[in-house]
């Protein structure tokens, strides 16, 4: 069915990645562009969390635009993420900046989801070491947040497998020659509604799905929520389940 609306189903999309440089096996659930509003029934979010737990991922990574309302207005919805069993991190998207990134951080932290904006985290998963690096949205300067990307990328340990979480796919251009094995992004919604998606594609060269940029594999998720009109047409919602071998 090409027309989608609502939150009653959770379309998991399996993506298998063979990253020769990565060196470890990993299962990641990527949640992107939820655009949570007070109208979303907590029951649906609880069900989504339960299904994610059944997949048993190593990580759950939110690639921005979590809210479409003030964080405290959707606190009950965000508290659903307390049920996630895997380590969970998020970066802010442009809508999170607009609706209040500081309040979002407060609520997400209570829900056990850690902010990754402009920082590096080192993890040990099943005896294997890797590093996560996150970027706040490119419009975060509007709230006085500077993205010191050169300093941030210079702090990476080049011998470690590296995942970059950045809301906007275009940020892949900031990596340069540094080692980033995988970037996870969203923002585009896959255009959300055809034929308007054709205009989005003109502005977003990394539009939907898998790409290769220099030495980095980039995955752009269509996301699961809605912006503006609460429908999707020929731009299917997705919760990406990425298996790295």
Q: Strand order within the widest sheet?
A: 2-14-3-4-5-6
Shape: globular
Share of residues in helices? 10-25%
C-alpha Rg (nearest Å): 17 Å
User: What is the CATH architecture descriptor?
Assistant: 4-Layer Sandwich
CATH fold-level name: Purple Acid Phosphatase, chain A, domain 2
Tell me how many strands there are: 14
Structure description:
This protein is an alpha/beta fold and 245 residues long. The chain has one domain (3-244): Metallo-dependent phosphatases (Purple Acid Phosphatase, chain A, domain 2), CATH 3.60.21. Helix content is 19%, strand content 27%. The protein contains six helices and 14 strands. It has helices at residues 42-55, 75-78, 94-99, 101-110, 149-154, 197-203; strands spanning 3-4, 12-17, 26-31, 59-62, 87-90, 114-115, 119-125, 128-135, 162-166, 182-185, 209-213, 216-220, 232-233, 239-244. It has a six-stranded mixed β-sheet with strand order 2-14-3-4-5-6, covered by helices on one side. A hairpin with a 2-residue loop joins strand 7 and strand 8. It starts with a strand and ends with a strand. The model has no long low-confidence stretch (mean pLDDT 94).
